[in-house]
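The records we work with from here on pair a chain with its fold. Taken together, the C-alpha cells spell out the fold as the letters spell out the chain. The record below shows the convention in full.
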Amino acid sequence: MAEPDEEPTSDEVDTDDLDDDEVDVDDEVEVDGGEVEAEIVDESEAMAALPAVPGRKDPGKSIAKKDPLQAYMRDVQRYPLLSREDEHALAVRYVETGDVDAAAQLVTANLRLVVKIAYDYRRAYKNLLDLIQEGNIGLMRAVKKYDPYKGVKLSSYAAWWIRAYILRFILANHRLVKLGTTQAQRKLFFNLKKEKAKLAAMGIEPTADVIAKRLDVPKKEVTSMERRLGVGEMSLDAPVSQGSEGRPTARVELMPSPGRTVDDVLADQEVSRLLSDKIHEYGATLEGKEKIIFTDRLVAEDPRTLQDLGDEFGVSRERVRQIEKRLQGKLKKYLQREVGEGVLP
C-alpha cells in the first residue's frame, strides 16, 4: 500500500479506459514552439486558490458576469474543500454503497484542481474552458476508479486522470486532421521539439536517425511527423493561381473528382439507351397475354398486380406469374443475342 502522501504511479491509472487515444501523462506538450511541462501538481497549491488569469478583470467586478471563464471560476469557489477525513469517508461510502451524492461531493470539491492543471496547458491550447471540460471528465473517471483503501489522496490520483484527458484532447484537436494515430506518433507529437532542442544544446545534429534511437520509434515516423508539424492546414478555397479570365483558381478546383469519369458516365448512358431500344423492339414482336404482361408489368412505371391481370385473363395469379417468368427468360436470351452478354447488367 502506498504511503498517505505518496503519489500514484502511472501504472495505477487504467489508461485502457481512454479507448484508443490514451496518452503518456509523463510527456511534455510542445505545440507551435511552446513547451508546457506536465509536472505533478502540489495539492496544497492546487486546492488553495484558483490561478489569476493575466489580462482579465477582477472576478468580483460586474464584468466577470459576461466572462464565461471568470464566471466558472467564481462558481467553482462556491464548493467547499474537504478535509482528509471527510474525503476518505465520502470515498468509502461511494465505493461500498454507490452513493451518487457522495461522488458528486468528491468531484465538486476537486474542481479547482482541474482548473489549476488545465491552466498549465494554456500555451498548448488557447481555449481554457475546453481543457477544463475535458479535465472534469477525467476527474469524474478518477472518482469512479478511486480506491480509498490504498492511502493515496484523491487529488494525487485524480491529477493523472485529469492530465491524461487534457493531453488526449490537445492531441486530437491540435489540427483539423488528427496527427497522433499510433503510439509512436503520439510520443513524437509531444516530444519531438523538446528532443531536437536537447540535441542542439548538446552540440549534436538532431537528425531523424538520432531522434528515432533516443525516442525508440521508427525513423520514418520521425520524418513523417516533422513534415506534418512543419506545415499548417491549407484551405481548399485558398487561391493558388490566376485564371485565364482574371478570376483566381482555388485549390479545390484543381483536385481530381472522387466520382466517376465523364467517359464512364457517357458509356453507361449509351448502354442504357441501347438496351432500352432493344427491349422495346422485342416488345413489338409480342402478342396476346405476353404483350399485355410485357407492357403492363415489365416496362410499366406503375406495374399492375398479378391478381389484376389474372382477373382480366380469367386465370389464377400464379399462372400470370409463370407467363411473366417465361417472358423474362425469352427477353434475356433476345438481349444476349442482340447486344452481347457482356453488356447486360
User: Anything to note?
Assistant: The chain has three domains: 10-174, 185-230, 262-343.
